[in-house]
Amino acid sequence: MAKHTTLSLPILCFMASFAISGCSTDSADQHAQTEQTGLTSNQEADIAAQPKYNFNTGSAVSTEPVQKETLISAATAEEEKIEQKQISLETLKNIKDAPELDSYLLQIGDTMDIKLRLNPELNEAIIIPPDGLISTTMAEDVQAYGRTIKELRTDLTKQYEKELSDPKISIILRSFAPNRVYVAGEVNSPGEFVTAGPNLTLMQAIARAGGLKNSASPSGIIVIRHKNGALPTAYTTDYKAAESGLDPASDAHLAAYDVVFVPRSDIADVYVYFQQFVQQFLPPSFGMSYQLNPQNNLNR
Questions:
Q1: How far apart are CA 37 and CA 48, in angstroms?
Q2: Which pLDDT band, with edges at 50, 70 and 90, does 82 fall under?
C-alpha cells in the first residue's frame, strides 16, 4: 500500500511589531546552505541588503531595520497633531450658536422679473450670472448673489432714484437654482447633494452620503459655511446628541453651499499611520510545501 507524507517548509519568518527580524539557523544549516548555493555568509548578507520589491505599493523599499528612536518620534508627532486638533475644535462655535439662516438668498442662475409699477417700459427679466452681479437699464453691477429679495430691492431703489423721482420696484422670482451642500471625509458616498426643497439638516446630509464609516469620528464633525463671499466660518456639531434624540436641536439646518466634513477617529489615524510607515515596509511572507508519494511496493 502506498505511503503518503506531507512536509511543510517555511521560507521566511514574519515580522514582530515595528521591528524587522531575520530568521536564524544553526551553523550546520548555514554550512549546508553554503554548499548548496556556493555563496558565503558575507555574499548572502550583501544580497539581503539590496532593496526588495514591495507588492503592496508597487515600488522598491529598503530592508534596513526601522530605528526605535524614529518610531518613537513619529508617534510623538502624531500625538501632538491629535492634541492640536482637539484644541482647535474647542475654539470653534457649535452650529447651534450660528446666526439664524436668512430667508431665501438669491443664487447663481436664479431668474427674476424686475417691474416698475409707474414705469412699465423699464420692466426687465434678469438671470443672476456666475459673478453674482446684475445690471439693468438704470443700474449696473448690483450684487444679487447671497442677498435676500428685500435687500436687492433696496439696492436697486437707490440706483433708480438717481433718475426717477419715486421708483416703485417689485421683484418677482420666477425660477430658482437648487440648494447644494457637500459632504466629505469618512462617509460611504461623499459628494455634492442637490435639493430643490427645504434646506437639508446635518443628519439628512449624512444620510444622503450613505452614512458614517466605521473609521469616522462623530464627535469631530464640522460644518464650513460660506456666506456672501466672506471668509468661510467653521462650526462644530454634536452628531451623537442629534442621532440619539437627546438634543434634536443639534440636527441643525444647513445653508446653501455648506461643507460637512467628517474626520477620521484617532484609532483610524493610528491605523493609517501604521499602514504608511510600517506595513508597507514589511516584506510579503510566503511559504512552500511539497508531498512525497512513494510508489514502491504497490499492492495490486
A1: 14
A2: low
CA distances, 123 to each of 71, 110, 120, 167 (Å): 71, 17, 5, 12
Q: Which of these, 62, 58, 47, lies nearest to 282 by C-alpha position?
A: 62
Q: 200 lies in which domain range?
A: 89-97+178-265
Give me the number of domains the chain comprises: 2
Say what the pTM is: 0.57
Burial 256-293 (b: 16+ CB within 10 A, else e): bbbbbbbbbbeebbeeebeeebbeebeeeeeeeeeeee
Q: How far apart are the first and last CA of the chain?
A: 9
